[in-house]
Every structure is written in structure tokens, then in C-alpha cells.
Amino acid sequence: MESGAEPQKDYYKVLEVDFDATDETIRLSYRRLALRWHPDKHKGNSDVTAKFQEINEAYQVLSDPDKRLEYDLSGSYEIDRYTLREYLSRFKGMILTCNGLGINHPSWSQQLTETEPIDQ
């Protein structure tokens, strides 16, 4: 990373959801946080306005399937930024399934469960 470059924001942390959160979970968390951090409730506080803008930015990306996929695939992830629990929660989809990497091949699971006798 270049010096002075801002690290990529973790939009999942911003919206307080897991990496594999459903669209509905993301929407509900966004609404809850937007109500809590709305600038009208905290008049004159620039930190609250910045937090509200960050929440909106995260929602704009994670609520759009194409932007979310691009974000997930292009993110720069540093292992030391996460506790083990956060790391496993965030990356379990990629760790446990090919679909977590965007690979969807239904016959693979069928092939793994079917075994053919070996001719000797």
C-alpha cells in the first residue's frame, strides 16, 4: 500500500453485519443505524455527519449485488485487521464453499456424494 493511501473501509463492520448477511439483514441494519446516526438528531456534530455518510456509502455498495460482488472480490484484506472470530465469520463463505468465490457448479456436490466402484 502506498504511504498516505487510506485503507479500504470495511463496509460490513460499518453496517454491523456478517460477511454473508442477507439483503434483508443489510437493509434492516442500515435503517437502524441511519436512524441512530441521523444528523438531525445530533445537530452541529460533524463526527455524526461523517458517520452517517459512511453508513450511506456502505449501504450503497452492499445493497447493490453487482457493487457488493466487486467490493468482495477487490477488497484488500489484511489478516491482522481482524480477530480470529471476525476473520472466520467474514471469510467462512470463501473458506467452506466454492460458491463463496463465485463458483457455482451444482454437479460438484453431486459428484462428491456419488461414489463409483473401482474396477480392479
Detailed description of the structure:
One of its GO terms (cellular component) is endoplasmic reticulum. This is J domain-containing protein. Residues 10-75 form the J domain. With 120 residues, the chain is mainly alpha-helical. It has one domain: Orthogonal Bundle (Helix Hairpins). The protein is 56% helix and 0% strand. The chain is built from six helices and no strands. The longest helix is centred in the middle third of the chain and has 17 residues, at 46-62. It is globular, with a radius of gyration of 19 Å.
Question: What is the secondary structure topology, with strand pairs?
Answer:
Layout: H1 11-14, H2 23-37, H3 46-62, H4 65-74, H5 84-96, H6 106-113
Helix pairs in contact: 2-3
InterPro entries: DnaJ_domain, DnaJ_domain_CS, J_dom_sf
Protein name: J domain-containing protein
Domain J: 10-75
Approximate strand percentage: under 5%
* Count of individual helical segments: 6
Look at the structure and give the CATH class: Mainly Alpha
Shape assignment = globular
- Please provide the count of β strands: 0
Sheet with the most strands?
A: none
Give the domain tally: 1
- How do the SSEs run, as a string of H and E? HHHHHH
